[in-house]
Design goal:
2 domains; about 375 residues; 10-stranded mixed β-sheet; globular
Length: about 375
């Protein structure tokens, strides 16, 4: 496939002010698709940046202007580790039919995944997550979707997919043995019990804002297991991110989103990371656009220090906890290199021939040691069983 057929070249004005010496900026250390430099040999890169200026199916318009605005800020930040090979593919060519964006994104992601290239997506509205979902569903591998959102975007009885109901499509008719979903940061007054019940009954989870903010490291395991992370920038409080489609006075602080993004970059199996729902016309002095650029920068920084591990095959200490409450033992693994933790679900993963393995933390091991079943283990056991 020729990716040049899918993208318009990058075209940005030179910045009026340089924050750091020009030769040390992000834009000077990456490959950029321009009219004079076509896309070639995508497999030579680790990361591909994709702009999608499409909000035709957005509940609130305005995010189509975000990709170039974010890109301009990102280009002025410091360069990432030279060993991380990055290409900016440009902006997806947009038609009058929003389905074209979904299926184009599907085709692009399948090509990138086949070449082990991670997609960094600058939206656009969050319903574009559907295009990534279409690609990952075709892989028929264990697929974990994670969103960061102040609301659960489902429950609206509408005929077509939109940015406020896209989860209805993404969560329907999924095989629980190869699909999982987690949301981080829902705000209870935006999240009726009926919607939380839908998530719980499917064996998925949504963690409220206060819980996540109390200790960000507690959600690192969920992020570590994610294949695709979809960020609605409205999850950040309005004072830190005024230029979003649905601002709210409460939410993550800007630096907290950057920390979560760094965890995401270091996630072992991450295939796509996207930021959506920016509204540059409602921004104040480019505040939100700059935060989105820094969020992407931290994702890339996390990727540059990624360490791939498979504790079941070595490099980890195994702990077996006798769980009378579970009626069986639970095996935990602690990495000798990174000190990260995992726990086994005693069900065979047909793709690996080994028991399913999910990330966890030391607190889960401590909980099991007191004969209390970790909630994520329990949910995963019932979802996969």
């Amino acid at each position: 496939m020729d990716l040049n057929d899918y993208f318009n070249p990058v075209s940005l004005d030179k910045p009026a002010v340089h924050m750091i010496p020009d030769d040390l900026t992000f834009s000077r250390r990456i490959k950029i698709h321009t009219p004079d430099h076509k896309i070639t040999s995508i497999g030579d890169y680790d990361i591909a940046i994709i702009g999608i200026p499409d909000d035709k199916n957005a509940f609130i318009k305005g995010s189509s202007a975000a990709p170039d605005a974010v890109r301009a800020r990102l280009y002025q930040l410091s360069s990432i580790n030279r060993k991380t090979r990055i290409i900016d593919l440009g902006n997806l060519k947009i038609t009058d039919n929003p389905n074209d964006s979904y299926f184009a994104l599907r085709d692009i992601l399948l090509e990138l995944i086949a070449k082990s290239v991670v997609a960094v997506i600058i939206g656009g509205s969050q319903d574009l997550s559907y295009g990534v979902d279409l690609a990952l569903n075709q892989k028929k591998e264990v697929y974990h979707l994670l969103s960061m959102d102040s609301r659960l975007d489902l429950g609206f009885k509408e005929k077509s997919i939109t940015s406020r109901n896209y989860l209805d499509t993404l969560l329907s008719d999924k095989d629980p043995k190869i699909f999982n979903y987690t949301n981080l940061g829902h705000q209870t007054y935006f999240t009726p019990d009926r919607l939380k019940d839908i998530i719980d009954k499917k064996g998925y989870e949504s963690l409220r804002l206060g819980y996540v903010r109390s200790n960000l490291s507690v959600v690192e395991p969920q992020i570590r297991d994610a294949d695709f992370i979809s960020v609605d920038m409205s999850c950040v409080r309005q004072s830190d991110a005024p230029g979003v489609t649905l601002p709210s006075p409460n939410g993550f602080f800007g630096h907290e989103l950057c920390q979560l993004a760094r965890y995401a970059g270091a996630a072992t199996g991450i295939k796509a990371f996207g930021v959506f729902e920016l509204s540059p016309e409602n921004d104040i002095n480019g505040h939100t656009v700059h935060l989105a650029a820094q969020t992407l920068w931290y994702f890339l920084d996390g990727y540059s220090i990624k360490i791939k591990e498979n504790p079941q095959l070595g490099g980890a200490t195994k702990f077996i906890v006798n769980m009378q409450s579970a009626g069986q033992d639970i095996s935990f693994y602690k990495s000798l290199k990174t000190e990260r933790w995992w726990m086994e679900i005693p069900i065979i993963n047909p793709l690996t021939g080994l028991n399913y393995l999910i990330s966890c933390n030391y607190e889960d091991y401590q909980l099991a040691s007191t004969d209390e079943i970790p909630e994520r283990w329990w949910k995963s056991f019932h979802r996969l069983g």
